[in-house]
UniProtKB/TrEMBL annotation:
Single Gene Ontology MF annotation: L-fucose isomerase activity
L-fucose isomerase C-terminal domain segment(s): 349-475
Keywords, in A-Z order: Carbohydrate metabolism, Isomerase
InterPro entries associated with the record: Fuc_isomerase_C, Fucose_isomerase_N/cen_sf
Taxonomic lineage from the root: Bacteria, Pseudomonadati, Spirochaetota, Spirochaetia, Spirochaetales
Superkingdom of the source species: Bacteria
A Gene Ontology biological process term: fucose metabolic process
Identification of the protein by name: Fucose isomerase
Species of origin: Candidatus Ornithospirochaeta stercoripullorum
CDD domains xrefs: L-fuc_L-ara-isomerases
One Pfam family here: Fucose_iso_C
Entry annotated with the keyword Isomerase: yes
SUPFAM superfamilies, per database record: FucI/AraA N-terminal and middle domains (SSF53743)
Keyword Isomerase tagged: yes
Length: 493
């Protein structure tokens, strides 16, 4: 159950320019609300139609009293530029602007609204006031069209509300030689996210304090039920249950003024020996509840995961952009069956943090790489605890919001899929296919100095991600450009 993301309560305020009949905007807004309700969207319509600044103040008070946390400003006609834009300034939440199309060729005298024109002046006024707002790709339509646009606004609004009420809790510095996970935190403050940084020792002390917690047995039962045949190490579950309770209690005790919490934790090299297990399975369980736990203290990875969780209202994961697909494997299992070049494919991998519900089949195993290093390749003990298996095939969106050395923010978004091809490897892993991935890898991921971690949303949600990132003011948003569209640094020959 997604218990760590906002519920969106929509309000709508209709605006009307006083030289147009108020009834035009009023009637069109009523039709939009009716279409929203047919589509299952509960929208509170402010009784006041805003024609002037006093109306705007009154309408905002009405939606606040209705406890709305996201708002649609509807231009039923041309709209009054100042009142309609200060609504967004006064309202403490994400705001969408949308305009009414004309309804009938037989009603273009007294029934014409000119909102097509009014949206231009509205957007200009928003820019003058430096007010962020969501404006759909084509923001003009009839009641059915507008209701559809409002439905598309909901996941965007959910992400914006979540970020404004989010705290990222970290444990430990980034691992040695993992500069890729280092990023300045100022960018977090710029978009309204809070951060609390702690040491691994703080976490270890809290973990030990949960020894013999009476709730452990219940968590173990839940883990056992989830894992089924994948429960290879039943003796390990009490340790991991103790850790899960430690993180959940820390979230409750440290959320402070914020409603939502995610984690970015150090998970190696000291963690497994001192705690007695790998934290991956626990991380996966929290992610399945809407509380992403990013590996290797990847703060912007945790932030990206949370954005994806809000947009999809379902579990996401964080993976390494890890290794190429061998040519022989491509030829025998992909070429001719799927419309992808070899360079369009790669394997996304992490030790075992992907939620169980996102695996084609999985179970608790041990971290092979750390077992070699920390246990000399012997019988695994404290390197157990990864959740491993091939990730289920289907549509995905690979994305990341990243803070640069100069504290600016940049991002990428690429839609693709996980192929139904066995990886024959270890970890939580899948064969990813993204059109023109080879060029995207070189001219975005390498050229713009992105780290190796990418967030994965299960579904094509690039449009919503793009809207959220734009709303946050991110200017540099990259995507996997088609071969007919050169990157700025790409050789044309």
């Amino acid at each position: 159950m997604m218990s760590n993301i906002p519920d969106v309560k929509l309000g709508i305020i209709a605006v009307s320019r006083d030289c147009f009949p108020l009834t035009v905007s009023q009637g069109r807004c009523k039709s939009v609300v009716e279409e929203c309700r047919k589509a299952g969207l509960d929208v509170f319509s402010a009784p006041t139609i805003a024609e002037n600044e006093r109306d705007a103040v009154r309408a905002v008070e009405e939606v606040r009293e209705a406890r709305c946390n996201a708002l649609v400003v509807f231009l039923g006609n041309f709209g009054p530029e100042t009142p309609e834009t200060i609504i967004a300034k006064m309202f403490d939440g994400p705001v969408m602007y949308v305009a009414a199309a004309e309804e009938s060729g037989d009603n273009l005298i007294n029934g014409r609204g000119d909102a097509y024109c009014g949206m231009l002046n509205c957007s200009y006024n928003l820019a003058l006031r430096k007010i962020a707002a969501y404006i759909p790709e084509y923001p003009v339509g009839d009641a059915v069209d507008v209701a559809r646009m409002i439905a598309e606004f909901v996941p965007v609004a959910r992400a914006i509300i979540g970020l404004r009420n989010l705290k990222i809790i970290t444990f430990g510095p980034r691992p040695q030689d993992f500069f890729a996970c280092n990023a300045p935190i100022k960018g977090l403050y710029d978009i309204g996210v809070e951060i609390e940084e702690n040491s691994e020792l703080d976490l270890l002390v809290a973990y030990r304090a949960h020894k013999d917690d009476e709730r452990i047995a219940e968590v173990v039962r839940d883990m056992t039920a989830e894992l089924g045949d994948g429960n290879a190490y039943p003796d390990l579950l009490p340790r991991m249950a103790q850790f899960e309770l430690t993180l959940l209690d820390w979230a409750e005790e440290h959320r402070g003024s914020r409603e939502y919490v995610v984690f970015a934790d150090k998970c190696w090299p000291a963690f497994p020996k001192e705690f007695g297990f790998e934290p991956c399975y626990v991380n996966s369980r929290l992610a399945s509840r809407g509380i992403p736990v990013a590996c290797e203290v990847d703060i912007y990875g945790a932030l990206s995961e949370y954005i994806g969780t809000c947009i999809t209202a379902s579990p996401v994961t964080l993976l390494d952009i890890n290794n190429t697909v061998p040519k022989d494997m491509y030829e025998s299992e992909i070429n001719g069956r799927y419309d992808y070049k070899l360079s369009d494919t790669f394997m996304g991998f992490h030790c075992g943090n992907t939620p169980f519900c996102r695996l084609a089949g999985g179970g608790i195993k041990y971290q092979l790489i750390q077992n070699r290093t920390l246990e000399n390749g012997g019988t695994p003990d404290f390197t157990r605890g990864t959740l491993e298996g091939d990730i289920a095939p289907g549509e995905i969106t690979f994305f990341r919001l990243q803070g640069n050395a100069d504290t600016s923010l940049q991002a990428y978004v690429a839609e693709g899929e996980i192929l139904p091809v066995a990886t024959r490897s270890f970890g939580g892993i899948g064969i990813f296919a993204i059109h023109e991935m080879g060029r995207f890898y070189r001219h975005v991921l390498i050229q713009k100095h992105y780290p190796h971690h990418g967030a994965v949303a299960f579904g094509h949600v690039g449009r919503a991600l793009w809207a959220v990132l734009s709303y946050l003011g991110v200017k540099d948003i990259s995507f996997n450009q088609p071969k007919t569209m050169l990157y700025s640094d790409e050789c044309p020959f």
